[in-house]
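Table S7 (text form). Paired inputs.
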Amino acid sequence: MSHLTLQTDAIAAVKSADLVIEAIVENLDVKKKLFASLDKAAPQNTIFASNTSSISIGDIAAATNRRDRFGGLHFFNPVPVMKLVEVIRIPETSDETFTALETFGKTVGKKTVQCKDTPGFIVNRLLVPLMMEAIRLVERGVASPQDIDTAMKLGAGYPMGPFELADYVGLDTTKFIIDGWHQKYPDDPLYKPSEILNKLVEEKKFGIKSGEGFYTYSNK
């Protein structure tokens, strides 16, 4: 902790930074606004990275004049426990930048995997459609959330079923991700919105954090 310096002024914080990692709200416009301001304040050699879990790195980088020094570093919650970080590059990311990002991930004790800029990168590209297809099974009356979770845990060896995972991630977050992908790729059935998910979010049933989602929780 003695090596950490806290700063509440983002502009001041980046003026001597070698690497800037953004981890703010999952909103493209907000991220672009932040990076546009940081781009003017940070040294020319400073590398920018986003911790976004679902937004295109290229779309975020478009707000800056350093696309060759821009990439993704996607950590997983809870960060102290989860060992993985996805290192994402856009076509303009230089080899030097990408190597620096991967080296940083390894230096902080993470296992790194490389990925090109694509919706959800590796993990969420697989997990979010899985959760959505599980929800569609319920919508079609095929099985209950409880039985689907049990089947995936005992039959596929998953530590959490898709509905438990959706409640953990947050149904509002899951909806935000799938809506964004559907808007960008409207013809892809993987990203088709769900009536059940939309209804739960409309009712403020976000999962664990609100006390109710597909399951009911005691938040006492």
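Next pair, protein 2 of 2.
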Amino acid sequence: MNAPPPAATPRLKVGDLLARKGDPLQLELLTAEVGLDREIRSPEASSPGLVLAGYTTRFVGTDRIHILGETEITYLASLDAKARSRTIQTFLSYDLPCVIITKGQDAPEELLVLARDKGIPVIRTRLKTAEFYRRLKPFLDDAFAPRTTVHGSLADVFGVGLLFRGRSGIGKSECVLDLVERGHRLVADDVVHITRSVRAAAEAHRGRGAARGLGQHAGIRPHRTGPAAHGAARRRAAAGDRPAQSGKESDRNL
């Protein structure tokens, strides 16, 4: 059986971000239709930080979205016109995908003029900076999750995906159809698109635990020991309940 093909490198353009998340993230384009085909190449987003103060030695964020929050905009407003223009020229001398301003703040005019000249989109959101980061990160993680396509058939059996792979005619579809006849669900036949998403995996494992040799089980409750357990035993005794006896069935859901 051939190995699965390598995962494709995800691509995300600024225009895609606006089209897919414009309303949920309350995005407003301030530079007309400039630079919408620019590619965002990283799932990270960051602020320019010390670049605005002139320290550019360790600036490596040309592959990601740059966010100007209240601190950055207030700092730019505190500069005189000449210093502000020089700072913005340094910042936009890098090939940035786009710049996003949070909290509905007004963009410095020098920033808008130079960004249009360089073809760098400037976008504004009414969301506060922390809230914007919180909503943006899951979208970027999903957008940049590794993806691949394999030849096979996929079934959902009690919430677990079973992927059947092999050469043509070996019986992959028949195996899946047999599962469907037994009440399970067909997910895909012949062509299966696979995405590796950390967030989706975390959601799938939420509320589940793993026991060695038993796999994952839902609803595992921890077995209390020490002072907390003795306190619980005293409360049960006060209520007239007997503690579980050694060797008998306990209330642990394992």
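The chain has a mean pLDDT of 81.
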